Amino acid sequence: MKVLKFGGTTVSTAKNFRTLLDILQEESQLEKPVVVLSALRGVTSGLAGLADIAAAGKEFNGILKEIEEQHVSLAKELLQGETQPPVLGQLNAYFQELESLLQGISTLRELTPKTRDLVLSYGERCATYLCSEAAKARFPEVLYLDATTIVKTDNNFGHARVQSDVTDMLVRSAYEEHRNHLLFVTGYIASDEQGHVTTLGRGGSDYTAALLGAALNCSEIQIWTDVDGMMTADPKMVKKAFPLTELTYTEAMELSYFGAKVIYPPSMIPAFLKKIPIIIRNINNPAFQGTAIRHSSDKNGHKIKGISSISDISILNLQGSGMVGKAGYSGRLFSLLSREQINIILITQASSEHSITFAVHPTDAQKAKQLIEQEFELELLAEKLERPTIEQDLAVLAIVGENMKQKTGVSGTLFHALGRNGVNVRAIAQGSSEYNISVIIFRHDLPKALNSVHDAFFTELKKSLHVFCLGTGNISSTLFRQLQEHHEFLQQHNGIQVKVVGISNSRKMLFNADGLSLTSWQEELDERGEQANLKEFISRMQQMNLPNCVLADNTASPAPIQYYEDVFRSNISIVTCNKIGNSSSYQQYRTFKDTALQHGVDFFYETNVGAGLPIVRTLKDLMMSGDRVLRIEAILSGTISFIFNNFKGDASFHDVVKLAQEKGFTEPDPRDDLSGMDFMRKMLILARDAGYPLEAEDVQIENILPPSCLQADTVPAFYEELKAAEDYFQALKDKAEKEGKVLRYIGSLDQGKASISLQMVDEIHPFYTLSGSDNIISFTTDRYKERPMVVKGPGAGAEVTAAGVFADIVNVGTH
Ligand code: ADP
Ligand code: ASP
Ligand code: MG
């Protein structure tokens, strides 16, 4: 025989109720089960609120009517024809009783725990009565049974302790007496010796089911709810949570104690003692096997079984020199708190014995503080102890699993995931049983912490990255296309999932924590985007507090730079092709690097130099492995490369510049390229990365253009001047050609001195053969002294730049 408990979440619609009846039909084939029901969804909390409102003398009728209406409309949905009026009549009678009870509370302005339990009991009574009547159409033998007649407790109202022996006896005899009936029993409620109604603690219907199951030696206790079983984390908080097939009683107890409210922790005890399996199942997915809780459980291949959390706790800290080496402080503290019924969620004590930290529900914090101040008054006066302080807005996150003790690296994985995402840990507790490691963190970090810890332990994915993107020009749109094309491959082969969760250009911005579409982002941004505001964009990104977060600055604007530091401080990595930040003052460059390092996040800017070519990374690897850069030579301007590669034979310099502009290789004013400014920025960044603290003015630039060309007012005027200076350029070319050389505009870093100059190189020089708009760089180092290391290839264009940004993004978090 089995006991089947249906939670408040399961009977709220006619469809669910039909499923419930089908389940009963199926289960009744062998032996009639016993059914336990709880209050309808939200009703217990609603009634508790009503009692408080009444006690405060405030108007309660409106809310009372809403709760009544919830029952009436369900009754109308579940019952047809002549069966309906008597049930509506009985419900009405219940609600009248409740109203007079509340009226009494209101008149007296007093709400004792005892009266509160009485008020709360109406939730289970109304729901169970209503369901039992509705079930009679298919099961005429259904009988409603009020658990106050069979479950006996002490008079600790609100959290009554069950008296097992009497309860077992009463349950068995009621079951015997009603053998021919299908019992529908109220969960959660019970009564004390005098017959006053008591309750078993919130979520207590599960406990009722377990008590009945144990008393009747049933074969299985089924807990029907609205999720697929006990999941690896609360599915409302962690989308990737998945159901566990098996758990031990201890694991289920630990998980539920720390907030997995899918089952009430004390329910495990009667089941454990009688070795009865508890199966958690989903009314919305009845074919699914659910989670079995029993003595031993499978080792599901993961280091832990699940993660749970309590989202609102306070901590108190008792500390002082008087505690060192003195026995008795913790004994006094904890017996005091237990005497006053203050539930301690977690305790940690520093090994120095200098302080004890413990966590309580926020509603108990003030009282705990006062009690401690009374109890330790003398020690406080003698300054052996410090006055306890309360810290609020905290949460507990706990990882649970019996296998944890056999595995190493569990806490390493936990703290790495937290640290990497900037979750500050206030306190840590590990039970010596090693079934559980709990950390106290700030409440606002909880969703991020749960998701990143879940990813770390359970996801096949090595990581899922959340990208916020500034700029929607060529680079970003190419990047989105590339991400879209490769996302499946990345996920399957590299275990990486990249979601773009925020986009902004100078006009509009759009966010979606689940990921924006990489195909229709443009239309969505235009249609649904809010007015752009960079400051707001950054602060929304911070508030969303997503794990593994990256800001991709794909603009060429100085505006985002001012936020970089703040972004690093909120533990968000930055990937950028924007050179402005790194090429402003050295001080600024240093601050970015140091802040990113301090906060354990990445700052990647491969595309600052040579687009997607591995230049920055190569230099970094050389430096990190202890090599020393002696000399760098480079051509890092695709535009100027193109110009000098085509300036040969009969070509005029003027025509080649024009051609470069027509092909889209230059800035609108070609002088922006020919002045060497952009090249200078790249050289400056390389020099800094090579360990030289240079400023922009330290880079010597030899002008390609004669002053007349530079001084021309407009672009057409510049071209005219260029024509006029043709002889100058031809002379340069002729000289080079006569010597068998070519002209190259080369940047060099030599012994810490950076310069850019027009040079003539012969055919044995590695830069001689450079073609098209390619970039080239050669590193001469201690290790690469005889023959320098050369990196060469296309160093400009949206496709290769976006690919470089892409590579930087997927590299985030790899070290
Ligand atoms: P019922 O009314 O059926 O007793 P509860 O609301 O008490 O249902 O418990 C079910 C809820 O528990 C789920 O809807 C889910 O949000 C929450 N929950 C929290 N942690 C977990 C977890 N680890 N696994 C499954 N559910 C969880
Ligand atoms: N109705 C009670 C509560 O909400 C008991 C339960 O749901 O198990 O706490
Ligand atoms: Mg419940």
From TrEMBL:
The lineage of its organism: Bacteria, Pseudomonadati, Bacteroidota, Cytophagia, Cytophagales. In the C-terminal section; belongs to the homoserine dehydrogenase family. In the N-terminal section; belongs to the aspartokinase family. Keywords: Amino-acid biosynthesis, ATP-binding, Kinase, Lysine biosynthesis, Metal-binding, Methionine biosynthesis, Multifunctional enzyme, NAD, NADP, Nucleotide-binding, Oxidoreductase, Sodium, Threonine biosynthesis, Transferase. Homotetramer. This is Aspartate kinase. It comes from Pontibacter ummariensis. It catalyses: L-aspartate + ATP = 4-phospho-L-aspartate + ADP; L-homoserine + NAD(+) = L-aspartate 4-semialdehyde + NADH + H(+); L-homoserine + NADP(+) = L-aspartate 4-semialdehyde + NADPH + H(+). Pfam families: AA_kinase, ACT_9, Homoserine_dh, NAD_binding_3. One of its GO terms (molecular function) is NADP binding. InterPro entries: AceGlu_kinase-like_sf, ACT-like_dom_sf, ACT_Aspartokinase, ACT_dom, AK-HD, Asp/Glu/Uridylate_kinase, Asp/hSer_DH_NAD-bd, Asp_kinase. PANTHER family: HOMOSERINE DEHYDROGENASE (PTHR43070:SF5), PTHR43070. It comes from the Bacteria. GO terms for biological process: homoserine biosynthetic process; lysine biosynthetic process via diaminopimelate; methionine biosynthetic process; threonine biosynthetic process. Gene3D superfamilies: Acetylglutamate kinase-like (3.40.1160.10), Aspartokinase, catalytic domain (1.20.120.1320), Dihydrodipicolinate Reductase, domain 2 (3.30.360.10), NAD(P)-binding Rossmann-like Domain (3.40.50.720), VC0802-like (3.30.2130.10). Its cofactor is a metal cation. Residues 399-477 form the ACT domain.
